[in-house]
Amino acid sequence: MKKDVTLSNRLIRKLGIAFFFLVVLMGTSYILISVYLTNKHFEERSQKLNAQLANHLIEEKFNGNSPFLNDGSVNKSLFGDLMHDMMAVNRGIEVYLLDSLGAVLYSVVLKHDDPTNPVQYVDLTPVEEFIACQGDRYILGDDPRNRGKQKIFSSAKFESNGRVGYIYIVLAGQELDNVASSLLSDYFMKLGVGASLLTMLFVLALGLASFWFLTKNLRSVIQTVRRFREGDMDIRIEEPEKTDLSVLATNFNEMADTISRNMEEIKSVDVLRRELIANVSHDLRTPLSIIHGYVETLQMKKDQLEEEEKDKYLEIIKGSSEKLSKLVSQLFEYSKLEADQVKPLKEPFSITDLAMDLVAKYQLLASEKSIEIKVNAINNTPLVFADISLVERVIQNLLDNALKFAPENGEVSLDVSVNDKDVQVAISDNGPGIHEKDQMYIFDRYRQARKASKSDGVGLGLAIVKKIMELHNTSIQVISKPNEGSTFQFHLPSYSV
Length: 497
Fold this sequence. Notes:
Number of helices: 11
CATH architecture of the largest domain: 2-Layer Sandwich
Largest sheet: 5 strands, antiparallel
Structural class: alpha+beta
CATH class of the largest domain: Alpha Beta
Shape: rod-shaped
Helix content: 40-55%
Number of domains: 4
Strand content: 15-25%
Strand order of the largest sheet: 2-1-5-4-3
């Protein structure tokens, strides 16, 4: 029981840990995705709001003023005042003057006096797309201060003194990035700590409730298995097909049924084993006692007995030894059949011819008891497909049984008929018959009908018959009523060429 509880707690603990980390992962993913989508939405909104900013700058500042001096150089004073005015309003804005090829001609955020600094270029493809759609689409452009990065922007094309260029305004410059990064870190710290604590408490409460509910069927299965292990062989999982573990529950119930059935069979076999030992001991003791007694008598009185008496005693000894030999032979034969050491060698043969041969062999024994044996067979009986030696043994045992119980001047019949695709063999006698409640036991080893208990043998012949029929995938039936005789019949498949 302790082990079952440990396994249950261990499983719940593992499920709890997995569930907790899953929720933390989902929470973290949700935060990251939310921040990303929120930032993207903010950028898209900012770009649309400031889409015409570059056009407004050109219209207001370049009207009457040229961005270039007469010598072709950049009008730095104009751009300086312009850029400082705009950046004073919004420090996140960076303004750049581009030529027709996208080269950055001037910006107050770049150091143009340093000859080691290479000329910065801006890819004009997104710029042309932005101008073409008039800022209605979310488009990212190059960040001149951070090569490889892209930012939201506003741009417009201008022409002055025969020169073409672009005003390129980065709407989220480095200053804004620094402030946003600081705020974002603080946001993550506050949100992360708060969300973690709330998530842990939520997961703890929800996890305990969920695991109690989800493992209800599992705990029920564990409890049922534990009770079954402790000896409650009748315990089963109720309505297994409706549980969450239907496959496990159904398999357990089937396994429990099989174990219970096997245990009942073992108990039955044990009872039969005890009966076997008792009956075999009795049947072996009787002929052995007779042999032993008459041998002692012959030894002690050999000089006093007449020859006729000696011959009589020797005949009794012979008969007892034959009974003993027959019993041992039956035991050996049955043990081989029960151990599946006998494999039928099936072949087509005439059951009628076999029956006639066996009846001829039993005529002498039947005449000693004034019993008439009859054979009834239809003409052109089809061949049967079976093991001829085993079928011969079946008919012999049934004839032995019929002659044993038929009264003097009685009758035994062997009938062969065709039933559908099978050939039926029936052996009948007009003996005392068998009570209906005894008929279910007569094929068990060492079980007899009550009226047979006083006769020779212990009923092993019928048990052998049953095993042989099972090897042929058929069965033996008995039809009998008290004082109306008995009929034993079996079927064999007919052989078709």
